[in-house]
Amino acid sequence: MNANAIFLPALAMVALTLVVWLRMFFMRVGQMKRERIHPQAVATSAQATARLTDSRAADNFRNLFELPVLFYLALVVAALTGSVTTAMLAFAWLFVALRVVHSAIQCSYNKVMHRFYAYLASGVVLWALWACLALRLLP
User: Which of 61, 38, 60 is nearest to 51 (CA)?
Assistant: First the structure.
């Protein structure tokens, strides 16, 4: 197996993060222009919360720096230790797919239970990825 293949899911997560960032940027700038909100009026998170009414993309953008941090770390550790397996690669791609679903839900219709199930499934997959890695690293 090509050891660099483990970094392709990481690139996919970066692409997802970029897409959500662009959505957040255009939604915020659009609202600020429509409602003539001066940038200084949303200088703090409390001010932004009070003035910017649609926080779905911003909330999702923050989510992409929570569990995914452990995802990125697992991929780097697997690559550096030569521990990449087909199962780990499959879990990595499944994690990405579930995070895409989570982001799509949160950035669009935002049904909490649908989003929760995608989040829960991605968390279980992430822990499975770490379990596979631990089995390869521990004596």
Answer: 38
